[in-house]
Amino acid sequence: MNENSLKVHMRIAAWRKQIDLLSAKKKKVRPASSKKDRYKVSRVKIKSLIRSFQIKKFHLTIDTGEMPVNAVLYPAFYFLGKYNNKSIEMNFMNQNDIVLEVKNNFARMIRAYYFS
Hints:
A hairpin with a 2-residue loop joins strand 1 and strand 2. The termini are far apart. The protein is 31% helix and 28% strand. The protein is flat, with a radius of gyration of 25 Å. The strands form 2 sheets. A 3-stranded mixed sheet has the order 4-3-5.
């Protein structure tokens, strides 16, 4: 910290950066891109691609580490598991696990992309 500047030094592995928080920010001038007709994917297509994935296995076991909080959340997790037909559990044994198996194939992705 100097009289007219407040500098932050960041270092992550081999990357280093120094930022002055009180200086006037400089705007970067970007050159105009020559490709204005870039191919863009719509949100509907992205949503249909995400829906093409299938969840084969899902198992969630949570322990918050506090007995009263676990006791309050236990019924909610029980009914949430029954509602979704998935294995969602709250335990009191200091165990946190998640198992997620997702499956997709190229044909489903193509069908979702072109027919959405």
